[in-house]
Amino acid sequence: MTLCRFGEYKSEPLLRGHLNMGDSCGREKIEVTSRYFTRGGVPFIGVVGEYHFSRGRREDWYRELCKMRAGGVTVVSTYMFWIYHEEVEGVFDFGGDLDVRQFVLDAGRAGLEVILRIGPWCHGECRNGGFPDWLLSEPYRLRDNNDGYMEKVNIWYSKIYEQVKGLLYKDGRNIIGVQLENELTNNAEHLAALKKTAVDVGFDVPIYTVTGWNSVYGAKIPVDEVVPVFGAYADAPWSGSMKSLPPSLNYTFTHNRNDSAIGVDIMRDTDRTGWRLPYERYPFATCELGTGIQVTHHRRPIIKPLDTYALSLVKLGCGNNLIGYYMYHGGEHRIGKTTMQESRATGYPNDYPILSYDFQAAVSQYGETREQYGLLCMLHLFAADFGSVLAPMETVLPTQSIGADDGESVRYAMRTDGDGHGFVFVNRHARGVDFTDAKDVVFDTGSVELPPIEVLRDAVFFMPFGMRLSESVELEYATAQPLCRVGGAYFFAGIPGVEARYKTRDGAELTARPGLDGTVQIGDVTVVTLTREQAVRARMLSGGLYVGCGCDVYECDGEICAVQDGGFEYDKWTGCGFEHVCVERAFEAARLEMIPTDEPFSPPYAEELELGGERRRAWYALSVSSPCGMAEIKLDYDAAQIYADGVLVADNFYYGKPWRVPASLLYGRECYLVTSEMRDDFYREF
Fold first, then answer.
1. Per-state percent for the chain, helix, strand, coil, to nearest 5
2. What digits encode the pLDDT tens for the residues 285-321?
3. Dist CA 508 CA 477 (whole Å)
4. Structural domains of the chain sorted by starting position, each given as residue range(s) with its CATH number in brackets
5. Cα angle vertex 610, ends 605, 615, to 5°?
6. 279 by DSSP, 3-state: which?
């Protein structure tokens, strides 16, 4: 038997009213304490998903935002890339796919709040970090408090505010926060000046954030003026290494918020001034948990669904009280007078595709959902219904630390109120670590000893103890993962390899068989235990709880839709059971034809095909039978481009996965695919 004990519970002092945030003007006030966020005085855990409106199409925004909302996202964050909107100095463009006002309105219509990442410098794998080319030629120093630069910043911020005026939270609308700059690690005075400029032009919002990472010391920030937010990724394609990276501590439970690997390509490793970010004054909040990762030309990792899910669950167990993802929805770089992706040609250490910014994200650049979309939704449903309970709880770690490469020891932590209530978090997955199954594992929280369970390799879950379900029912423990609540019914997800057992404080003990009919009655409470497969398809929509049958359902304009093409089925909770619904939807996927051909023209963006040196090319004429569905290209290559009527419409660096593009991009157009020869000059996992 493996007995898992915890260290001593210590409650840190809770600070309120110490941060200089904006106003809510009569609405339910959003406030930031030193441990969690509140709305109307009630703690909550927001879920923030990154989706760049300017890297998508205006006609797609609302539908894609609805998919995000169905996935449990409550706030969409989006960059304002200066170069996109003022490529020519003094000429601003906020029309069409650059219409930030319409995007914010679409987000509100989809039920989402908004955080604007207003820069001025953004990074985001954009050319010059988002700075216009003309700005780089100015004589003054950038990202600095000199008059020349700050005058331009004031104009830029003012132009953004003009677009979104009247849409702030205090106006009764949905912009709740702004992020200032990005990855600025050593200039608190400049961040303070940026905040003052933003406020002066009109950005009076409940939350001001900055990125907080810079080794373990944290970025230098204006204390109590902004909330530092953090991130963690499964891999680091910006690393210069072309070997497997060592296992990451991001998959272990610690009190460290700071992933010092983020941004090491552009920032110093350490701070030598003695600065330490006062973490104890801020809640643990994230803005860049990777739901995937973008590939670079020299490094092309494959992100598995569990890489993402384990990362987010571990951070939740570590105390994360604002779950923020980058990217949640992939997108596409723009092309203006130049290409606008980060590249070595623009002084950066990485080459990214000219167009593709898919990011292997939970929702792809073309709107398809990946497996992590459903896995992460389990956490988001829980945060929505039980965030007020979890947010005030503090993290207690095991008495013994566990190394990043340890595949035998059980990785665990708990969040608790110190009074017999809490959740035990368990992780048995990490990139690059070979785990074993752990048998007869017992978790002793100090107030409750859970029954022995087997923790399988790749098991990632959490279990409650001392969980109150009603005035008369409190669970001593459950060996299932709490999911959500609908009326008087509580839904749990079965844990693979673990029998779902529920024991109440008064000694009653029940066992449930997971499934749509896996319902047990505990006093005045109905408990439904879904299988893991059902739980990852569960969505809370305006009509209640829906479980897709092999599909991801979402709500758009009041209609239940499915992400996947064709007819679909789902089960809807009625209050006493599930009702099965079939939706007929005619669909015939387009047939793709690829015919090898001689070079039809000199490719306008040949430089992407010659990264690392001149390479042999292969050309194919493409055609599709209809605009419906996706065309899948199954070839091996280094880089690939698709031209439609002579215009570059899609590109990709091969990383071992079939390349899927919408048939609508090709239908009715003269299309060619060109690929370049693959060599052994990049990191691969295939």
1. 20, 30, 50
2. 999 999 999 999 999 999 999 999 999 999 999 999 9
3. 11
4. 2-387 (3.20.20.80), 537-587 (no CATH), 592-684 (no CATH)
5. 125
6. helix
